[in-house]
User: Fold these one by one.
Assistant:
Number 1:
Amino acid sequence: MKTAVAVSAVSLILSGALAAPQSPIGRLEGTVKGTLAARPMGGVQVLLVRLESDSSRTYSTRVDGRGRFHVDSLPTGHYLVQVSHPTLDSLDMALPTDRLVIADGRTTRSDLSLPSGAVLRDMEFVQFHPTALDVGRDPMPLVSEAVRGEGAILVDEGGERLMAGHSRGELEPRDIVTRAMWRHIAEGHRVFLDARTALGADFAERFPVIAAHCHAAGIDPGTMPIPVRPAAQLTDASCPCSVRVTTFCSPGPGDSGGDGLAPQGFIAPAQWAMLVAWWFWYRDSCG
């Protein structure tokens, strides 16, 4: 009798274990192609970072010969996806991240692209960003200058405000802000962007991607200062083409120019819009 009871108990335990619900999972698939020729790119690694603050985790995979990739059995949630390539790595450059959602039992598609086939020249200009998230990640996520525009302030580990002696405070041009930060860091201090008073609990709603990066590093930007430091942001270069255009720009009073607070102004987009419009007119007029 005791043996029968024991066997029944084991059977109930096993059946309960087998009936236990599994964690929801989904699947990601996509392609990586060149931006110009739209041909598959080889040697590309696709990286994913799960953004849920309680379980940040990184996944990676490589594309096949046809530029395709897939990642099975991904826990559901929000992810950042980025591609890396030996050419970009050799230049110490990284492409912007995309954000996607993995849903239970579904396949999410993400088609990505890499610069390819273009001859670049005059790559001597490197633009820097004053406030990159200083948590040991490479590449460093950027904390938008718009956060300072919302009223966040720069402080050190002792709470001393870095930009208190400047007339425009944290809204000074990025070169002035960066020099102040760099001098303070060189003296052995750390620098933080404090948005607790300016944004507080509204931070995640106003800047969801930045908040996700912070949460992945164990930082709640609504209640904690954000560690930041200057970092290289992008490289400027020219691409030879058959259209020759000369543009002139004379910034007026208050124009942010090339070192102003984000966004850096509307002159360059307007110039490009005029160039594109001119090109379509030229193409249509020539039959």
Number 2:
Amino acid sequence: MTELIKIERNTNGEQLVSGRELHINLQSAERFSKWFSRMLDYGFEEGVDYTPYQKVHPQNNQEITDYVIKLDMAKEICMLQKSEQGKRMRRYFIECERKLRELNTPKTQSEVILLLAQQNVEIEKKQIEQQKQLNAIENKLKIVEAKQVNSPQDFYSVVAWCNLINKKVELSEAKALGKKCTGLSKELECQTGETPDPRFGKVKTYHVDVLKEVMGGQ
């Protein structure tokens, strides 16, 4: 296939062309700056579809503005020309995309295994990062829960009390225990309190007598 226009690839593997080169290849008689400004009226976004940059003109050595254009934008611009050359350039871009997909598609068993191995490495990296984030959250929760244990007047949250008596509790169970503590506090006309919690903003605290009645403990 004869090269009609130079196509580059960025670090994300996206195919890119020069706005000025596209203008020339589309054989537009309109001045480039006016033509490109008119194309932008169709809703293309800077930083998403195209990126401006400065370069030196090869003939007069003056600095001029060019644009790195993603291939999807280039194909749309070709359609907007409503010309045979526009159709030709669009077909060329589609063919270039097809060839790139073929290059990126594994053909042998060894290539498939290599691709799967690379994907597994990426998955493991993400899992390790997620685990680090979970560990950081758990550490923060431990600090908050430790503070809750030291709440004044012998008031504790459900989770803080469970930590104090070495009782493991799931979130759903903690909610259920909290409802029981709330009900018993009302029944005994016992005051409840509140303490900050990074997960829910604030959680209720209960008097030790209520907590002992519902969950046991020292």
Number 3:
Amino acid sequence: MKRYSRLIIYAVFLVGFLIFSWYKSTYKNQSIQNLAPENTGSVVFIIQEISSVKSQEGETKRWLATYSSGGKHAYFHLELLLKEPSATTNKLGIIPTKGTFYHEANSDNSQLVTDLAKALEATEISKQITKTNSLPFTATILGTNLSKELGSDVRAGSFTSNPKGGWTALKAFVADGQGEFYLAIDSVNKKGEISIKDPEYGNIVLRELVKVL
């Protein structure tokens, strides 16, 4: 009888130990997952449409962008020429276009520059930057009506065409094509995003953006 009692006690102890080990492992993994940032390679800002002008080239939209973080508020204007696919569009649906960043007065860009440097993985923040009122750039539209859900394809690092959404994603070029980054706009939810294309472009892209932001 004592033998059976010992077996039962041992079995109960073993089951309890296994349950505790499973719970501890699961809780630890969940904690790590909850603490992880959603996307450390991007900076998201709010946009408010100011103007929209249609022409033979397409539709030129301009937004006031606001980035708030750490008690700091940065403002800038973003202008983009949005085009529809045409007979000259390649098989991948990539459309060449252009845009411009504009400086906005009374803007505190200190936190924005810091966060952009992290997102772009830039290793240098030059303090000897000549400020300018505008920064033109060329771009290619990588897709429209995109979402950030898991899908059958990947556009601009973190977007997909299926399921559909409100994002338009572009690959932007600055410094005569020496610097590349992703730029995305969601006019429906009034959001914009600047994200990393490749760490090798980080310093160049940050140097150019700081001129106008």
